Amino acid sequence: MSTFYTSTPQAQAHTEILLKTAVAPVWFEDRSAMSNILLDEGSQKSFISEDLAAQLQLKPCGNSTISLSTFGNANQNVRHMDKAQITLEIETGGFIPMDVLIVPRIAAPLSNVTNVIASKLPYLKGLRLANPVTEDRKFELSLLIGADYYWSIVQDHVIRGDGPTAVKSRLGYLLSGPMHTFTGEQSSTGMFNVLIQHQQEERSLEKFWDLESIGVKADELETTTMKDFNDEYETKCITYQDNRYTAKLPWRNDFNELPTNYNVTLRRTCNMIDRLKKDTNMLKMYGDIIKDQKRRGFIERVTENGNQSNRIHYIPHHAVKKGLIYDSYTYSL
């Protein structure tokens, strides 16, 4: 929406909502890095971004299966995520061990401007804020602390006023709630003002709740569309030649291009090989199966080069041992 003013504009009231954010060091073994934290009691688990995990050279200690659904959607998606253990350094110099799940990205960046304004409010002056005032306008989240550790950090003392509420925590005071600001420019001439802030805020909130930011997107295909897709797939994508069926992967026509996923796949594959090295017989059997599959033409080596027409997407490999002895051994993607 656009508005044209021919007189001096008046300051406009504007409300933003602060979320509980903090900045604190996190540790893995003898390595540390600063983390931008969101404390969210509405999340059952805690998450760490792949970027922060890479800085810490974090080593997964297992995996966890969780069910996720988009905001307002009853459908759930099952996800398998690497789990790791980190240590959060608190204000007094102590430490809180935490189990976290590794995700590509936690959420879209939050605005950091309102924190600067809030710190100047009379009833908040002198408080040591968990999210220090900086010149950075964006707050890129790298750690989400859910309800599993929320009350290990948040304490009882609350300060209220005409603005956001301050809650004491072991990281400093956390600010949350509505923050009223005023916008407008002093001018004696006409100006053209494009009012799009409200739409941007709605989109930011939508991005925050959209689970696509951690790699999950609900399937939006209608039943009729799926039927047409299945019919086309059967006629065009499945062939029979030399006593062998060949079926293409059932890609959607309107899909977004997948990322390469190289770093995640490499890390998980290396971790799997490290586990297999503990049993030399199993590691040899695993290698023999891969060689046999390649010899029989079931798999082939893919090399990346500048002339590659299609972008490569890597899928982590997972070894599966069946039975108590090595007479039955297979693998799956």
UniProtKB/TrEMBL annotation:
Domain DUF1758: 37-177
UniProt source species: Mytilus galloprovincialis
Highest taxon, organism lineage: Eukaryota
Protein name, entry field: DUF1758 domain-containing protein
InterPro entries referenced in this protein's UniProt entry, alphabetically: DUF1758
Pfam families associated with the record: DUF1758
